[in-house]
Fold these 2 entries.
Entry 1:
Amino acid sequence: MQLVTGNWKMNGLKSSLKEIESLVSGLRGRTRLPEILVCPPATLLQSLGPVIQGSPIKLGGQACHAKESGAHTGDISADMLKDAGASYVIVGHSERRTDHKETSSDVAAQAAAARRAGLSAIVCIGESEAQKNEGGTEQILAQQIQASVTADSLTPETAFAYEPIWAIGTGKTASLNDIDRTHSFIRARLEERFGLPGKTVRLLYGGSVKPSNAREILNLTSVDGVLVGGASLKADEFLAIIEGSRG
Ligand code: 13P
């Protein structure tokens, strides 16, 4: 089943709950749906619980600390996210790698913490514009796959998200050919690294996914879902993206 995920990033107040209410009512009665995940800021997780109850929507966190608890001011543990209603957590998003200097080995420790807490990780990888222009895309992706998660952190629901940094929030999307070629490369590395689980782990695309391009992206056989930023904030746009899924 495809996985359509909304990453709200640092957006959303209590008033945004109405977007999820609209999403819930827009989904009512629909069949052949993909798995649907919303990753709001952690402050909204608890209040979203009653809103999504009885709907197909699941909740996820956007990041977690590698430790279970302790003196880490401002951080959130995987157990806290689980306790607040999450079943997934995004790890290694490029914005975390940049803003918080998180390395792939930090990401691997966070993915392990997620697994211990009973969460499935969505592990983000992707090259910068400079790396792409230097022809370094495959090398950076291979390194990130090698170092950003260990085999014992995988669950049947674990996903990898290919998010080229130059496509995030820019309106530029990788071409269908590039997505397909890069996903095939990533899939081969995942199989090499993890064996059978590397064949089945879901591989999402992220980077300026919107209603106008979601269907063609989700129609690629190498794409098992999408990770959507800006267009996930509005119920009607997110719903249109969900409708583009193969289910
Ligand atoms: P945009 O969809 O806003 O480009 O963001 C992509 C992203 O970073 C999702 O995690």
Entry 2:
Amino acid sequence: MSQPEKLYEGKAKIIYPTDDPNIFLAHYKDDATAFNAQKRGQIQGKGEINCRVSAVLFQDLEAKGIPTHYLDCPASNQMRIRAVEIVPLEVVVRNIAAGSLCRQTGLPEGQILAQPLVEFYLKNDELGDPLLTRDRILLLEIVTSEQLDRLKALALEIDGHLQKFFAAGGITLVDFKLEFGFDREGQLRLADEISPDTCRLWDSAETDPEAKVMDKDRFRRDLGQIETAYQQVLQRVETVMTQNQMTQLPSTNDR
Ligand code: UDP
């Protein structure tokens, strides 16, 4: 059967329609971009790794009551997702100072934040994804005030779950970007991906500032060993998932 016309092609994924108008198919690509696509490359095996990491994390979050767009993975680099209308906001949650927060505020990299910081950026490459204020979001009528509160609460709840999940795999969750969408019933769902492309992940056992980096900063900063770092993240995430499944199984004594 020939591939249907794509609905949308982004920097890291291609979205295809399916026979069911409520379901799309996301193909995760090996293409890597940074600095608003000014730097381009390929990370061998990235599509599969990001798809598998995202699938594990979406399933874990769903189990904890967070609605996501995830359905299942028909192939290792393909995810069936619920059709959602993406809210044009990049919701960034930070636990430790890094990246643009340090560049823009002078906070030293690695400083632990007293409480998680939630930020909203406009999802618009032409404008360079500017940082928004609450009033600008309401001015642009991107979401209502109540929806914005819900987005922030969801982002903080997701942060709590993800921090714990990654910590069990010896990974420190520094910061990450989320996207949300409204499904056909008007329910807000976590969408896009959660992967080493969209999170800063530091090896908790490493102190060396370069050796600890397990995410796209290896590509952004030309640190090398990108594929190995991404594979490590996948391996650890899948190990935590297996461990969690084992502890959830009823023991023979419980029967
Ligand atoms: N991020 C992302 N896509 C973007 C911008 C940021 O996934 O278009 C992620 C990035 O990987 C990091 C977090 O959001 O985990 C915060 O990024 P930051 O604002 O520090 O931007 P950067 O320093 O990468 O320019």
